[in-house]
Design goal:
Arc Repressor Mutant, subunit A, Alpha-Beta Plaits, alpha+beta, HTH_AraC, globular, four-stranded antiparallel beta sheet, transcription
Length: 186
């Protein structure tokens, strides 16, 4: 039995859900972002109990086909942006279409209709969130971040960052640093 779960966005989400399934004594065949395959079918009581537990943790079991497709698109994008380092050499539409085994125009229209934004805008928002994360970590230069996230140039990354956040990457970084207190002042 396969369950589709909304709001699984990272490896920690997988661990949390795995832990809850273990507590309930449910055997898992496979677990990945947005999807859990169990060894056996759940009774309606087990499914309701699991649904309530997941809801309290910020997750949700998805039953309708459109919602499953939307969540799958989001998980493909999250995985692409947050869990792969410059590995993909296809464009976004090819990756999404291939992963979901559907025509991209269908997926794009469905996503826009349900989410009120385009797949491309969602992808850009995820990339900008990753840029913010990498800027806060302060381990990579802006050109290294641009390369890692497949931007054609630092200027393009900076322009897109400013368009989305209203700040330049350097201003964002400075604001974040100004908010941090030294350990002896905490």
């Amino acid at each position: 039995m396969t369950l589709f779960i909304k709001n699984m966005v990272c490896n920690r989400c997988i661990l949390v859900i795995q832990n809850e399934l273990d507590k309930l004594g449910l055997s898992v065949k496979n677990i990945k972002l947005g999807e859990v395959t169990l060894e056996k079918e759940l009774t309606s009581e087990e499914k309701e109990q699991l649904g309530n537990i997941l809801l309290n943790l910020g997750f949700e079991i998805i039953d309708d086909k459109k919602s499953r497709i939307i969540e799958h698109i989001k998980n493909v994008i999250i995985n692409l942006v947050h869990h792969q380092d410059n590995d993909i050499k296809m464009n976004l539409s090819e990756v999404v279409s291939k992963e979901l085994n559907h025509d991209y125009n269908y997926l794009s229209n469905l996503f826009s209709e349900v989410e009120g934004t385009t797949i491309e805008k969602y992808f850009i928002a995820q990339k900008i969130e990753k840029v913010k994360e990498l800027l806060v970590y302060d381990e990579l230069s802006l050109s290294e971040i641009a390369f890692r996230l497949n931007y054609s140039s630092v200027a393009y990354l900076s322009n897109q960052f400013k368009k989305v956040t209203g700040l330049t990457p350097s201003h964002f970084k400075k604001i974040r640093e100004d908010k941090r207190k030294p350990l002896d002042k905490v």
